[in-house]
Amino acid sequence: MTTSQDNAYGILIAALGGEGGGVLADWLVQCARIQGLPVQATSVPGVAQRTGATSYYIELLRQPLIRGDRPVFGLTPVAGRVDVVVASELLEAARMVERGFVTDRTTLLASTHRVYTTLEKMHMADGRQDPKRLADAARALARQTVLFDMEAVTVKTGTVISAVMFGALAGADVLPWPRDVCEAVIHASGKGVQASLAGFAAAFDEARHPSRVASEVAPDAQQVLADAGLPVGVRDAWVTRLKTWSPAVQTLAAHGALRCRDYQNDAYAVLFLDHVQSLVIAGTPAAAEALEEAVRHLALWMCFEDVIRVADLKTRRSRYARVTSEAQARDGDIVRVTEHFKPGIDEVAAVLPRSMGEGLMKLAQRRGWLGKAHVSMHIRSTSLWGYLMLRSLARLRPLRPRSLRFAQEHETLAAWLGAMGQVLPQSPELALGLAGLPQVLKGYGDTQARGRLNYARLWTQHVAPALAGTLDAHTAATALRDALKATLADPEGKLNIAHRPAAAGNQPVFWAERPRRDKPVSPAA
């Protein structure tokens, strides 16, 4: 009798829903049977805070059975006894590491791309897991690792990621059969054969050259700008400015300038580069991390969300393509998209010219309309009238620089830039905390109002005293870091209760029980 614990070869597949993990498991089983190897496959459905995740476990013997022997296979993988783990996404690979399936006997193959979890998306700031940390953990524990962007190969070859994972397994020499057996099984499937074979071959070559895919290197700034299709004059002018900065700042600034150009216009992108130049001049080698963080948040801040931006994004062709893809709509299917808007007085005032917006806000405060007056609208962006309505709103972009919200944001931004110029050469630690402060400013409407209260509170309590010299830089940096962390974990803005200004005209209401008149006591009692 053969026992699975001593002689079986275990392959564990971790895939998200809809990625073809079951197809890959079937292909592996068919290959084993063609080779005359005993094999068993099981699957365990699960969740991964995204689309669901299923683990497929295949156990097989690498040699045919001797007549009379009967194998005993395990139904589920056992920590420390898995020979191969293949994951369709980097965090899924980390989950396998966490559960003990990746050890010094394990070959780990995983894609370096990310599909962000619900918790990562819900975070008020950048809640993403550090991909370098995830990859380093995998490399430290596995006997051998093959990491590359399988999603990029999938898109390039027009196939599904299961075919790419199959090619990676074959290319890593972890399967007890040759490449032609794998290709024969793909041929026999009869569905998307050519695309599957192309993805298989590309992944096979990637796995054979691990030095080429050991890490993902961000493209340099010139390549980023070249790929953006900019006019030659604009691109050359930007490249001339970027050349004087460090490579990391160059790449961040290139992405930021493109974002500002898409958000407003060329002049706005040049304004962003001017602000970056002022930060670079103030920076020192010791403050390189703070400078990079400041450039990143500067780009996001200058492209703040307002109803004009939201209308623009909701009517883009790329957005409709993404929605239909997520809905798994086929050619000829009718997809209708309904947008829900609930603008309040503050959102209307934000896009008005500054004087008009301020007047409307003062009136709303006197009348007690703020937070109460909203208009709920359901607009079908895929209908003619709905689309034209949103595009009309998006075309207000040239008027944005005259709006109340634009003036408010850039006044606050100017003060932040001045503070960064002061602390960058003096205290890199405080500069790093101050660079991350704009994280609390985001969204529009109620979200934006809470963010401004958060920003004002943190600035008053921690930044202003440090700038005035009444609080030493190290103490201020530590306090600001802790306060920022607590603020980002407080989406409802409870920390602002003590700092929220009272609404004009509102008076507290006290409820008190009416005094009772005690009945007189009878003298005879």
Largest sheet: 6 strands, mixed
**How would you name the CATH homologous superfamily of the largest domain?**
Pyruvate-ferredoxin oxidoreductase, PFOR, domain III
Helix content: 40-55%
* CATH hierarchy: architecture of the largest domain: 3-Layer(aba) Sandwich
Helix count from the secondary structure assignment: 23
Through-space gap between termini: 99 Å
Which regions contain 5 or more consecutive residues with pLDDT less than 50?
1-5, 211-218, 521-525
Global Rg: 30 Å
CATH class of the largest domain equals Alpha Beta
The third-level CATH topology of the largest domain is Pyruvate-ferredoxin Oxidoreductase, domain 3
Percent range for β-strand residues: 5-15%
The largest beta-sheet arranges its strands as 3-4-2-6-7-8
Structurally, the number of domains stands at: 4
Which secondary-structure class do the elements indicate? alpha/beta
Number of strands: 10
Mean pLDDT: 85
How does the overall form come out from the CA principal axes?
elongated
Polypeptide structure, described:
This protein is an alpha/beta fold and 525 residues long. The protein folds into four domains: 2-213, Pyruvate-ferredoxin oxidoreductase, PFOR, domain III (Pyruvate-ferredoxin Oxidoreductase, domain 3); 221-282, no CATH class; 307-401, no CATH class; 405-499, no CATH class. It is 52% helix and 10% strand. It contains 23 helices and ten strands. A six-stranded mixed sheet has the order 3-4-2-6-7-8, sandwiched between helices. Strands 1-5 form a two-stranded parallel ribbon. The protein has a two-stranded antiparallel sheet with strand order 9-10. Helix 3 links the parallel strand 6 (84-87) and strand 7 (107-111). Helix 3 packs across helix 5 and helix 14 (288-302) runs parallel beside helix 21 (428-435). The chain is elongated, with a radius of gyration of 30 Å. The termini are far apart. Mean pLDDT is 85; it is low at 1-5, 211-218 and 521-525.
